[in-house]
Specification:
about 240 residues; globular
Amino acid sequence: MSYRVLNSWKVEKLLFPRLNSRRLPHTNVNLLSHHIPKTAGSSLRTAFEQQVGKRAVYGVYENTGAQAMSTGESIWVPSGAKILHGHYKPHQNHSVIFPHAMRAVWVRDPLERVWSLVGHLLALGEKHPHFKLLKSSMPRVNFNSQKNVVRELILQNAVDAFTHAYAHFFRSVPINHFSFVGSKHKYDEGLTQLADLLDIQLEPLQINRRSNQSDKLPTSIKRLEMHLSQEYEIVSDYL
């Protein structure tokens, strides 16, 4: 995902290009908000921005250092940023680079997450690189049927990063090391808990959300739960 960077940040980076690292920690950040795809991340970022302002919420995505962040390397962050939100993985170095920050993440039922992800990619089609990856990984599958794509993706484990996202995500930092783990199935309740933890007000929003009907799992897909047993073992206590 490409993230729109504020002009003020562009100027700041030009004038003060030094990266935050273990030797130069960022002490203003108080929350590392991790967005696993299809777990209400867009809604959460908007809620943060409405409460603390856009200049205090820095998006960490492909064009703003997500890869470096995921591997615990140095990264440029605006001096006024208080919340880092985006598609980056947790790393042990983060506790040193951002010494005052808590870790937060949201999860959802693994089968439902895969179903929603595939539906999202099918809707976007060839313009999304993950759709191209999915299609090239299963050249004989009928992509006119979401049910067929999801079934074969899981049975073939064609793209492990899609089917076992939690195993990949929590590899460096286990889920029980997070200050907050919210469930997408209890979003409003979790948002209240997160707001209390941060001592701010957060309003429930639904951004980039497909209809409840489109997210409803067919019976044939529900029967595939055993193929994602490792994923359920990781997140079942938090759903």
